[in-house]
Design brief:
Radius of gyration: 14 Å
Mean pLDDT: 82
Oligomer: single chain
Strand content: 15-25%
Order of helices and strands: HHEHEE
Low-confidence stretches: 1-7
Strand order of the largest sheet: 1-3-2
Shape: elongated
């Protein structure tokens, strides 16, 4: 059976979030970024949140950020929104 590509593509972010959260101190700040257009922001955020949960942690999303003014987003080219970053405060 071939996995559903749309469902599988953010999984690496989920797995990346797990080991980092196991070394982030309690009350620590966890930052993760991506420059892949294959995972839209919502999927990236959900995958990272699952990774934090899988690590047995909880926290709050402090900031969502993306490209600066030197990387303008073209409205007709959604793949151009490839830069994204999340900052969490972990419990």
């Amino acid at each position: 059976m071939i996995p559903d590509a749309a469902h599988e593509r953010p999984r690496p972010f989920q797995f990346c979030a797990v080991p980092r959260n196991n070394i982030t101190a309690p009350q620590g700040i966890f930052f993760i970024a991506s420059c892949s257009h294959n995972a839209p922001l919502i999927e990236f955020t959900e995958a990272v949140a699952r990774g934090i949960t899988d690590a047995g942690r909880s926290g709050r999303l402090l900031k969502t950020s993306g490209a600066g003014t030197d990387h303008p987003v073209h409205l007709q080219l959604p793949e151009n929104t490839y830069l994204k970053a999340l900052t969490f405060a972990l419990d």
